[in-house]
Amino acid sequence: MASAEIAAEHERILREIESTDTNCIGPTLRSVYDGQEHGLFMDKLEGRIRNHDREIEKMCNHHFQGFVDSITELLKVRGEAQKLKGQVTETNQKLQSDGKELLKSMDELRQCRLQQRNIATTIDKLTHCLPVLEMYSRLQEQMRAKRYYPALCTLEQLEQSCLPRAGGYRFCAIMAENIPVLRTHIRDVSMSDLKDFLESIRKHSDKIGETAMKQAQVQSSRDSDITHQQRTGSGKRLRREVGSGTMVESSGGSPNSEQDSGILDVEDEEDDEVPGAHDLVDFSPVYRCLHIYTVLGSRDTFESYYRKQRRKQARLVLQPHSNMHETLEGYRRYFNQIVGFFVVEDHILHTTQGLVNRAYVEELWEVALSKTIAALRTHSSYCTDPDLILDLKNLIVLFADTLQGYGFPVNQLFDMLLEMRDQYGEILLKKWNLSFRQIIDQDNYSPIPVSTEEEYRRISGQFPFQDPELEKMSFPKKLPFSEFVPKVYSQLKEFIYACLKYSEDLHLSSTEIDDMIRKSTNLLLTRTLSHCLQYAIKKKNVGLAELVQIIINTTHLEMSCHYLEEFISNITNVPPDGVNATKLYGTSTFKDARHSAEEEIYTNLNLKIDQFLQLADYDWMAAQGGGQASDYLSDLIAFLCSTFSVFTHLPGSPIEHARLPGKVAQTACMSACKHLSTSLLQLLLEADVRQVSMGALQQFNVDVKECERFARAGPVPGFQGDTLLLAFIDLRQLLDLFTQWDWSTYLADYGRPTCKYLRVNPHTALALLEKISRAMKDTSRKNNMFAQFRKNERDKQKLIDTVVKQLRNLIAAHQS
Fold it and tell me: I need a labelling partner for 475 at 20 to 30 A (CA). Which of 98, 186, 457, 491 fits?
């Protein structure tokens, strides 16, 4: 069984050796040598080799005859082949000999055909290369001439059309390598030109704005002339179209040459003295750079850079100088820069497609407008010169009209001008306050002397004064008022003109202008002029004559108020009797001033009377009174007489102008008499005066009689009867009661309307009686020489005590 398995294994190994490549037989043989039966295997291998040898021999024997036959035939063919070889060799020699000329001709033909092909190829290549070289040459010329946009177009055509057709030559590769470099160079150079342009317009925006504002001013003057010719004299002022046609829109397409670089064509206007603002600026760097960046595909980058740089410039332009408010030129430069900035932006807006848009420009303008208004409010608040404010207002109007002509909204500027109107009014009031003070200080408070008809007409032209009676008088003559009146009236008109100047060109209606002027004039009258008049009335060293002249002056100014009303109506074309028309308060102002002057007259007179009374030196214990008035009272009466003569001898028509001074004189005279009466009574009842003798009372009575004589003499005409004496009625009844010692009548009739001593107050009578009682008691102690006199004095003292008791009872009864 084991031998069978070994035989089978050996058979398998032999088959594997027969069928396997010799390179892979090693493992098979190794398996044989690793076994124990390799001798048996070798025997079996020898037997297999012998079998194969027998099979090979059989096969060789089977094919040997055919091999012999083949060799025999091959030997026959060799002879024929030798013969054929000789023939072929001979034929070849003949053919070689005969084909030499043909080969030579064929070689020549081949060379000719090759040259023809090369020439055709060369022509074809040159046909493609020459345009490249020509275009590159043109590109170099354009670069040398700094015509960068055409160069960029040439570069694009060279890259996209010519180089691909030319092929892969070395010079083409060099050109292709240089194209990005050239593009970068063109972009950098164009950006450099743009930066130079931005710097240039930043420096010259002042000049650009100045030119634009001059152009707007010229247009404004023309419009004003046309409007003045067509105006009917009423209605609302129309807004003027400023700067129309200033900018000419150009196509924003890509230019074909450097000459078509976006500079605006300006119409020939030989008559215009002021060129267009855009004529001063070469905008070609902007257009060139825009087109270059568009071609390079970086338009967004360019737009972003341009807007960013212009925003920075806007911030610089809108920053005012710290001393801008000192001169008008500072404001002018500030406005010129802003106008120049927005003229450039407006031009860019209308001549490019999308570099800036309307929203961007409007946003810039809103920022600029707010900052400009804030700066103007700040700097104008420092201004104290009305002329500078007025010039600034005109400059702002021109600034607004200029920008309005370019389509920018400027309503906020006009609103700010209306706000500045209040500041302008306050400055005017301060200026006119100084003018009025100067007029007051320089006035001589004397009627104006007029020597000739020319002088009279000149003053009548300054002040609306009409007096038929005065006109009939011959020269020389005097006007009732002083120089103060025509000067103040002229100043009032000048103030109205100043207000009117500010209201011009503010796009206000005539009614609004009229209302503004009237309100400002009312402020001037009620505040400034009123204070100045009070200053004139209250200042030191103002005499009664000056006060009287102030009364006359204010009277004439009051009568001229309706002329001021007409004057305002004439310059504003608004009737003064309109429903909403503001009335002037001049009448009340001058009335108040006149009343203050009158009160000052009364006060000054009373102060003078008090000064004289301070000189009174009564001997209250005098034994008997003198026969004449006291010296101080005589001086006081003389002063009053001379004072009231000023009232009664005032120059001017007695018919029209003496009425008011007469009334003032009467009031002043009555006031002075009442004050004198009251002061004399207070002098008599002073607490320091504890004793009053009958002799002193008699002297006091003499003084009062002197006062009554003065009142009775009529120092001022116009009093009816003894009206002026009523000022001393209280004092007279009191003195009569004591001098006549008529106590029975006083006590019996007290309280009755028909009482003889109706004006005698029981308190006053009691106080004076007690002083007399003290004086009599003191005298009784001193005079004890005669008994009978002491008895009479004792009787009188008892009577006084009885009257005192009755007076006290009377006072107590009335108090209860």
Answer: 491
